[in-house]
Amino acid sequence: MSTSTIAKAEAAGDCCCPVIEVCVQGALDLASVARLSERLYDALSLKPSSLVVDLSQCPFFDAVGINLLVEVHRQAWRQEATFTLRGCSPRHLRVLAMMGLDGVFEVDGTMTAAADAPIS
Domain for residue 120, yes or no? Predict the structure, then answer.
């Protein structure tokens, strides 16, 4: 895409990067949620048509992390962007189901790793 095409796309309000993927590395909890929140809202400010959050390197998320995902999902919906969780482990999916959030998020593939340990 040439510079003039980018300028025209930005002037027209079109997105220059239709899909943005954010990879979460480490636990998504109270200690990390502020940093990830900033990254996700920065990504949404670019007005992508799709925001993908890769959880394959996230061994754990708590209620604070889940709340962030819900809020970002809502903002993406307001912007008419899709919001997808990628790389969910069976544990992630169980936690989302326990919170009544299964079916809320679009989920792109799951991990088949031995993350099927009981939740304690």
Answer: no
pLDDT tens-digit profile of 19-68? Answer: 999 999 999 999 999 999 999 999 999 999 999 999 999 999 999 999 99
Rounded Cα distance between 59 and 103, Å, is: 21
Q: Which are the contacts of 36, defined by CB distance < 8 A and separation ≥ 6?
A: 22, 24, 28, 65, 68
- Global pTM exceeds 0.70: yes
Which residue segment(s) compose the domain that 92 sits in? 17-110
Q: What is the mean pLDDT of residues 83-98?
A: 94
Report how far residue 92's alpha carbon sits from residue 73's, in angstroms, rounded to the nearest whole number: 16
Looking at the structure of the chain, the number of domains it has is 1
Q: What is the pLDDT of residue 109?
A: 74
| Dihedral sign of CA atoms 8, 14, 18, 24 in order | positive
CA distance 22 to 82: 14
- Whole-number Å distance between alpha carbons of 58 and 24: 6
Q: Which tokens belong to 35?
A: 């940093």
